[in-house]
Amino acid sequence: MRMVIGALIAFVSLSAQARDLERAASDSVGLSQAGLAKLKGDMQALVDKGDRAGVVYAVARKGKLVAFETLGKRSVERNLPMTADTQFRLYSMSRAVTAAAILTLVDEGKLRLDDPVSKYIPAFGDMPVIKAVNGETVTTEPQRTPMTLFHLFTYTSGLGYGNDWPASLGMTQRGILDLNGTIADSMTKLAKYPLLYQPGTKWHYGFSSDVLGRIAEIASGEPLDQFLRKRLLDKIGMTGTGFTVHAGKADLLADVYGPDAATGKLGNVTAKAPPSSSYLTPGTFFSAGGGLISTASDYIRFCQMLLNGGQLDGVRVLKAETVKNMLTRHTTPEQGLVYWYESKPQTVFKGYGWGLAIGARAEEAPHDVPGSPGDAAWGGLANTQFFVDPKEDLTAVAMSQYLGPDEPTLGLTLRKGVYAALRRK
């Protein structure tokens, strides 16, 4: 009996482990070996020159994994190498993952994109909108168009981040995203402030995904961490993704590095990295906008699920039309530039609009990186990047943990290297 039980436990354990995508020779899916070798060399150069402590990246085409490289260290001080199961703070790369999970509720009819946010969080219906700012005096007006879930998904809700509000209102980022509370607490505090813009008028980076995360909790009756695992992570084998590292696995979380102001050389700045989750110990605060940690292995699986129209390994997560809607550009030029956490687009995101919580390439816009009409991409604060290209059936992920001035370099290296290796017929 013990042998049977032991075998069952082993089976369950193995089935719960993250699975790699099926591997293939790059030439068999139209990517040159020489091109991918150059990409590896360029990534290795970032490490060798001391620009990054370490990098993990993955490339897949036509559903096959053709490159997966672990370069450098996840912790220089502890002499720990980058590995396939190294975990990274995703920050803004959390948004696409949580959005996909929340869209399962739309597929089931439990949420509608045109639902007013006040249907789930009544106080949001009473939020006024800033009309004018004169010194410390802020004049407001009522919402002309009620904020909807579509506004949240497209980041046209009128919400920003803490430092976007007039200083006289006393808004702070950590005051809203308090790791000692819950996302429900955050919404109660956020609803007391006016919106920056009328809903639907302007794209702006901010708390929109966190509001969606709370709405998912209300609609599902589950905390966001449990909801996310049941709806998405467990279904497609993303076992290294969550809001907290697995017990006893804290050393898998990569340290964060940045240039020392005095020497210019890389130094450990983990203590200065903004916390968006408790990371190392179970907590109560689950930020849909930036709280996840993940691995490159997991994230390339997520990207492949999107490329497959909502399914992976025979398991369907989303309807194909829902994925298409997610990756479709919904913002207009009149709604403004799509940037990251900065005031203007980074080079790698120049010419992108916004889909449903994901950057979507605008066909008519000028771009500084190669890609295809209809591709989608985004990145995270601590130097993580991904893109999915449905036209070329191509996806890639690169992860480091870095805070510094040349942060776009990783994404540029990934994009240029992958597309240089692509053999178009």
Characteristics:
alpha+beta; Beta-lactamase; 2 domains; 11 helices; 16 strands
Task: Give a brief description.
By secondary structure, the chain is of the alpha+beta class. It is built from eleven helices and 16 strands.
**Per CATH, what is the topology of the largest domain?**
Beta-lactamase
**Total number of helical segments?**
11
Helix content: 25-40%
Largest sheet properties: 8 strands, antiparallel
CATH level-two architecture of the largest domain: 3-Layer(aba) Sandwich
Order of the strands making up the biggest sheet: 3-2-1-16-15-14-13-12
Overall strand count:
16
CATH superfamily label of the largest domain = DD-peptidase/beta-lactamase superfamily
Mean pLDDT: 93
Given the C-alpha coordinates, what overall shape results? globular
Low-confidence stretches: 1-17
Report on this structure.
With 425 residues, this protein is α+β, with helices and mostly antiparallel strands. The chain has 2 domains: 20-94 and 235-421, Beta-lactamase, CATH 3.40.710; 106-220, no CATH class. The chain is 28% helix and 16% strand. It contains 11 helices and 16 strands. α3 runs parallel beside α7. Residues 1-17 have low confidence and may be disordered.
